[in-house]
Amino acid sequence: MSHSLHPQTLAIRGSKAQTHYNEHHQALFLTSSFMFDTAEDGAALFAKTKQGFTYSRTANPTVSTFQSRIAQLENGEAGIATATGMAAIQAALLTFLNAGDHLISSRSLFGTTAGLLTGHIARFGIDITFVSQTDVSEWEKAIRPNTKMLFLETPSNPLGEVADLEKLAKLAHENHALLVVDNCFCSPAVQRPLDFGADLSVQSATKAIDGQGRVLGGIVCGKNELIQQIALYVNSMGLSLSPFNAWTLLSGAETMLLRVREQNQAALKIAQWLQQQPQIQQVYYSGLPENPQADLVRKQQNGYGGAVLAFEVAGGQAAAWQVIDRVQIFSKTANFGDVRSTITHPWTTTHGRMSPDDKHAANIREGLVRISVGLEYVDDLIWDLAQALKGE
Ligand SMILES: *Cc1c(COP(=O)(O)O)cnc(C)c1O
Questions:
Q1: Does the domain formed by 257-390 have CATH 3.10.100.10?
Q2: Architecture of the domain delimited by 7-252
Q3: 386 three-class SS
Q4: Hey, which of 84, 90, 151, 184 would you mutate to test ligand 1's pocket, going by the most ligand atoms within 8 Å of its Cβ?
Q5: CA distances from residue 252 to 14, 80, 232, 336 in whole angstroms, order as listed
Q6: What pLDDT does 361 receive?
Q7: Could you tell me the CA-to-CA distances from 26 to 74, 220, 249 in Å, in that order?
Q8: Ligand 1 atom at minimal distance to the Cα of residue 207
Q9: How many CB atoms sit inside 10 A of residue 198's CB?
Q10: Band of residue 160 on the pLDDT scale cut at 50, 70, 90
């Protein structure tokens, strides 16, 4: 095609594995293995002198379709899918890091990722330095001769702090290191880290790609040469995505751009409404126009802030818990990116394992509430928050 297709078209038409039955929807190849026509054929497939499928841990047509479609949305050459977002992060890190290497990571991390780094990656002899999400000079000072990778997620959870991807990519490449970005909070509907120099964009497909709270999945996208190396790791470690989940996630991807845009607009409206409520001390949302990082948000996130925002209510934990206990529409759960809006208390859930001092240092306070805005009618959500704040 001489015409370059819009991501909305790619999300629906980007790739497909077609059988001779002429099915219209992507077929679900729910099979663990594939047959060979002859013994010679089997030998050729295993020797990789012939292209084809052998076993679904290694490759599967439904999973390949999913990988190719998300890679197109991320503007990457290729993608490798995994069973969960955490498996994608593990694969992106451990394919390239060896004992004796050094990793620099933002301090503002999803809780399980922080646990993966400090509890597991570190015990394999990989040194880790944690630095500020936003202060590039801290990253510069942390560089060592053995630094192999820079890792972060942007915007951060739950406060929406934005990292400068172009500056960090330049720093990484000047030092022969890879920049790996967790793109979960924005999704490729809003942000494409590879466009700003990241080497790998990683995400949990469980969030915006599914968007309907059904299945777990993950994917890493980037240059083909890097993805092929990660694919070998995923195959050996058995981190592969199931074909059923890939098929479900493909349906999710088809509507992702529309959902995410609508959810982002609703999140902005709610953030601006919250700013006017007397019980609210502070609203954290990267999409607010007065955000000091608004230029970066325009550049990296197409001006959108994502579906997740946080706000601090006066009165600490008791007041935050009251709001959470009084909402009638929002689901009390820590997941996000779903069509169902959710509400949670970071201090005691997602960030519960951090010490109180570390939480305060990260600006996560007892009165902080995090919501993920779904696709319910936005004025109903505002009504729900209003009655919960009023508390009658
Ligand atoms: C949810 C999440 C993950 C982990 O994804 P799973 O699919 O739950 O394994 C990783 N990073 C971020 C930022 C997340 O929000």
A1: no
A2: 3-Layer(aba) Sandwich (3.40)
A3: helix
A4: 184
A5: 14, 17, 27, 14
A6: 81
A7: 20, 21, 11
A8: 1
A9: 27
A10: very high
